[in-house]
Amino acid sequence: MDISAPKFFGRRKGRTIRKAKSFLLEHFLPQVQIDGAAELDKKHLFDTDFDEIHLEIGFGDGAHLAGISALKKNVGFIGVEVFQNGVAHLLSLMTGVKDAAHMDENISLLVDRADNVRIFDDDVRLLFQKIPDGFFDKIYLLFPDPWPKKRHADRRFINPDNLKALARILKSGGILQIATDHPIYKRHVLRTMHANNDFVWTAKTSNDWRYPPQDWVETKYQKKAVKEGRTPVFFEYRRL
Ligand SMILES: C[S@@+](CC[C@H](N)C(=O)[O-])C[C@H]1O[C@@H](n2cnc3c(N)ncnc32)[C@H](O)[C@@H]1O
């Protein structure tokens, strides 16, 4: 075991994984997977010279990543998620393979999809050291686990160590997009980001954080929050 591996507190696997999903993890994931062993290099990752590279941390079931990468075909995306069932769900959205009837060894992307998504299926903190300075134009952290109890506060993803890493891998002028529906996490983001000197909040009016930016694709947790009566907020910070 790598003793330098950071401790992860969420779930890595669900109780069950359907046949088509494990088929996708075995046969399609290797085609789009980042193994985390080598330093990231745009030319090796993608066949296309994309205008921008974006990172989504903790993409969950992949609804946002699948949607935004379909909308922005001129952008290369790196999605990171620990939860294997979520990774498999994203692969299903990318390939259209939903059940055993669609399982085919020559599995490929849906015809109208650009080949612009690469996946790291482990803890993003393990990838940080392999990412060159200023690699990303934009980073999404959408509805991160809020860890609302005080005794779990040090598990929250927005913390000084992770912000230091995000500031390094985001280019100057790049955007850090954070969304949350949890009142404690809203306050936590405001307080932690206010104390940080690498980012500036782009909000111009007090209403800005109530609305998602243009071209927004809803996430699973966002839909769940709205259905259950909670109000999401959207923070946009610019790297100085
Ligand atoms: C509350 S869910 C939100 C999922 C998705 N963004 C959404 O809005 O539907 C948070 C996700 O972040 C993932 N996650 C938490 N910490 C992570 C880390 N260090 N590296 C990669 N994924 C992480 C979890 O596995 C979980 O799927």
Task: Describe the 3D structure.
Strands 3-2-1-4-5-7-6 form a seven-stranded mixed β-sheet, with helices on both faces. It folds into two domains: 16-34 and 74-130, no CATH class; 132-240, Rossmann fold. The protein has helices spanning 19-27, 29-32, 42-45, 63-71, 84-95, 124-128, 160-169, 183-194, 220-227; strands at residues 52-57, 75-80, 117-120, 136-142, 170-180, 199-201, 233-239. It is of the alpha/beta class and 240 residues long.
CATH architecture of the largest domain: 3-Layer(aba) Sandwich
Largest sheet: 7 strands, mixed
Strand content: 15-25%
Q: What's the overall geometry?
A: globular
Spatial strand arrangement across the major sheet: 3-2-1-4-5-7-6
Specify the CATH homologous superfamily of the largest domain.
Vaccinia Virus protein VP39
Tell me the distance between the termini: 37 Å
Considering DSSP H and I runs of 4 or more, what fraction of the residues is helical? 25-40%
* DSSP strand count: 7
Low-confidence stretches: none
Cα radius of gyration in angstroms: 18 Å
| H and E string | HHHEHEHEHEHEHEHE
Q: DSSP helix count? A: 9
Provide the CATH topology of the largest domain: Rossmann fold
Specify the structural class.
alpha/beta
Small-molecule binders: S-adenosylmethionine
- The number of distinct structural domains comes to 2
